[in-house]
Amino acid sequence: xxxxxxxxxxxxxxxxxxxxxxxxxxxxxxxxxxxxxxxxxxxxxxxxxxxxxxxxxxxxxxxxxxxxxxxxxxxxxxxxxxxxxxxxxxxxxxxxxxxxxxxxxxxxxxxxxxxxxxxxxxxxxxxxxxxxxxxxxxxxxxxxxxxxxxxxxxxxxxxxxxxxxxxxxxxxxxxxxxxxxxxxxxxxxxxxxxxxxxxxxxxxxxxxxxxxxxxxxxxxxxxxxxxxxxxxxxxxxxxxxxxxxxxxxxxxxxxxxxxxxxxxxxxxxxxxxxxxxxxxxxxxxxxxxxxxxxxxxxxxxxxxxxxxxxxxxxxxxxxxxxxxxxxxxxxxxxxxxxxxxxxxxxxxxxxxxxxxxxxxxxxxxxxxxxxxxxxxxxxxxxxxxxxxxxxxxxxxxxxxxxxxxxxxxxxxxxxxxxxxxxxxxxxxxxxxxxxxxxxxxxxxxxxxxxxxxxxxxxxxxxxxxxxxxxxxxxxxxxxxxxxxxxxxxxxxxxxxxxxxxxxxxxxxxxxxxxxxxxxxxxxxxxxxxxxxxxxxxxxxxxxx
Length: 544
Ligand SMILES: *[C@@H]1O[C@H](CO)[C@@H](O)[C@H](O)[C@H]1NC(C)=O
Ligand SMILES: *[C@@H]1O[C@H](CO)[C@@H](O)[C@H](O)[C@H]1NC(C)=O
Ligand SMILES: *[C@@H]1O[C@H](CO)[C@@H](O)[C@H](O)[C@H]1NC(C)=O
Ligand SMILES: *[C@@H]1O[C@H](CO)[C@@H](O)[C@H](O)[C@H]1NC(C)=O
Ligand SMILES: *[C@@H]1O[C@H](CO)[C@@H](O)[C@H](O)[C@H]1NC(C)=O
Prior knowledge:
The chain is of the alpha/beta class.
C-alpha cells in the first residue's frame, strides 16, 4: 500500500469527505420503464401520472410535434395503449379517471375542451355529435350563436392551458432534512443515463466519449443514491415549466460549461425540433444561450473562470500562462447576471496552476496595469468569494432569483491515490473508486472548499445553496473524457490517444455522465421549492 501522501491540505475538512463514505444503499422505487417509441407521444400522459398521482383530470393533449405532419398510426396506437395502461393503474387504485387520447390530427386543431371530460378512445364521430351545439333557434340566432361559440372556445382554451400547466406545477418531494450528498454510486442500467449521447444534438465533440472511441459505456450507468432519501428522477417537463419565461444561467469556468451542456441535453429531449436554438459566443463572446421557444426559457452559460475580472476572460483566447486576477472587480461580468432567475456559480480549476495567485496591483487591465502581487491561493480565493458575495447580496433579489454555488469538481491525475500503482492519470479507468477509505486523496485543494464554507453563510439577504459535489465526484475516476476528447479543437489522433501521459484530460467529464448528477441536485432543489401563490394566473394568462 502506498504511503499516504503528507498533504499540505492536512487541515482539510475530512468530515466533509466522509459525508460520502460508507453509505448504505437503498433499493430504488421506480416507475415502470417506458417503451421508447411510445414516449414521443405518450410522455405527456405518463409524466402527468407519474408525478402527480393525485391528478384526477387531464385535458386534451396537443402536440406541437404532430401538428406539423400527419399522425403516425403506430405511435398513436402505442400512445393509446400507454394511456390505457395508465388508466388501469389508477382504476385499480379506485381513482375516478378517464383518459382521452384524441386522434392526433384532430387534436392538433381542436379549440374546445371541458375541464374534466375525458371519455372515449377513438369515437370521434359520436363525440362530435355530443359537443356540437344543439339545433339553432332560428336564422337570426346564427350570429349570436357564433359569438357564443367563440367566447366558449376562448374560455375553454384558457381553461385547457391552465389545466395542462397545473398538471406540471407539481412540487417534487425532497425531504429538507435529507443530505442529498451523502450516499453511494449504484450501477443502474434502467435509470441511467437520463439521455443518450446520440440523441443530444447539442453535445460538443469535447464530451462525446463514445463517439470519440471509448469502448465501455459503464460510466454512464452509475446513479447517485442518497442514503436517507431518493434523488427525484429528472423530469424535463417539470423543470421547463419552472423555467417558463425565465432564465437559468451557469457562470464560471469550463467545468460549469460542462454542466451547462449536460443541462441543455437534459431539457432538450422533450422539445420538438425547430423549437429550440443554441447560440454560441454571444454577448461579446462570453455567453452561450440555449433557448426553448415554446417556454420562452433560456439555459445559458457565461464565461468568467475566476468570477472576478481577470486576464483570462476571453472564452476563446485564454491560454494565458500568467493568470492575473482583479480580486475586487466584478461589475463588468456581474452586470450580465442581473435579473436572471436561477444563477449557478463555480470557480476552482483555474486556481490550481500555481500555488500563489497573481493579483493585479493597478486598478484595471484597461488602464494598462501589469504589476501584480502574489497571494497565497486560499487567501486570494476567499477574497474573491467575498467580492462575489458582496455583489450577490447587494444586487440579487432573493424573491426572484435562486442562487447556487457549485462545490469543486475534482481531478484524477494521481492513480496511486486509489491504489492503481503504475496507472497513468485517469486513463483506462472504468470503475468508480469503491475502496472508500478516509484517506482518499486525489489532490483536491480542500482549503478552497473550506473558504467557500466560510464565505457562503456570510451573505445576509440572499441564501446561497451550496451544491456539495466534491466528495462524491472524487469517486468517479472512471468518468473523465481522458483520451476521448479534443485538443486545441481537434479530436486526438490514435497516436495521441495512445499517449495518455501527455494527452489524457482528467479534468472534464464525458456526457452523458457525472455532470448529469450535479444537475439532478439542482433539479431537486428547484423542483421542490414551492410555487409562488400567484403564479397560476400569471402563467395561464401568459400562455394565451
Ligand atoms: C383549424 O380549424 C379552423 C376552423 O375551426 C380553420 O379555420 C383552421 O384553418 C384550422 N387550422 C388548421 C391548422 O387546420
Ligand atoms: C374537440 O374537443 C372536444 C372536447 O374535448 C371534443 O368533444 C371534440 O370532438 C373535439 N373535436 C375534434 C375535431 O376532435
Ligand atoms: C420571456 O422571457 C424573458 C426572460 O425571462 C422575460 O423577460 C419576458 O418577459 C418573457 N416574455 C414573455 C412574453 O413572457
Ligand atoms: C420578499 O417578499 C416578501 C413578501 O412579499 C417581503 O416581505 C420581503 O421584503 C421581500 N424581500 C426582499 C428582499 O425584497
Ligand atoms: C484502497 O485505497 C488505498 C488508498 O486510499 C490504497 O492504498 C489501497 O491499495 C486500496 N486498496 C485496494 C484493495 O484497492
